[in-house]
Amino acid sequence: MIPMPGLPEMIVFGVIALLLFGKRLPDVARSLGQGIVEFKKGLRGDEPPRLDA
Fold this sequence. Notes:
The protein is mostly helical. It has helices spanning 7-21, 25-44. It is found in: Membrane.
């Protein structure tokens, strides 16, 4: 079983993400958040039914 990452690993991951994405990090985080919200909406089935013409 793989252990959960601790604080040092999370810090290293954050530094690597900052180096890779830099100025685009807010955009990447925003799009990731929107993707998670859409995924949760899909699981709940909150979409209104479509009317086929």
